[in-house]
Specification:
The chain has helices at about 1-25, 70-85, 140-150, and strands at about 30-40, 45-50, 60, 60-65, 85-95, 105-115, 125-130. The protein is of the alpha+beta class and about 150 residues long. The strands form two sheets. It has a four-stranded mixed beta sheet with strand order 4-1-6-5, sandwiched between helices. Strand 5 and strand 6 form a beta hairpin. The radius of gyration is 15 Å and the shape is globular.
Amino acid sequence: MVRAIGVGIWRRLGGRWQWRLVRWRHHGFLVYAAGVVHDEDGRVLLLRHRLWPESRPWGLPGGYVNAGERLEDAAAREIREETGLEVAVTGPPVAVFSGYRYRVETYWTARLTGGDLRIDPTEVLEARWFAPDDLPSGLSGNHRALLAGATARP
């Protein structure tokens, strides 16, 4: 019940106030790390995020980097926290975006190494594996563009 009330308040705040609260919580400058996780069939893991806009709730697992944390470690931690899956982050970042003021987003390829898929219901409504040619319609635009390039990589 408390979670539902919190989500309702968050959605009613709107983008400008949400952004201000997130910036305040993270001391002004935000660094985001997310992972592109594929299964043995080449499908990509996507999450339907509870706190994202209802028009585009699907996206990669990820979140904010803690002070002093390596970017690739943050991506692996966020994947584990949101999905229960263990991953090894491989190689350099596949993308770095800075489309928002005071925010940098980093994206990493992650190889599945263990764990059982179980979502954190505080942040995630659903987790599913998608074929690269069958991505959900509510997928974030940045993530759709990234996956078009990331899934074409060998």
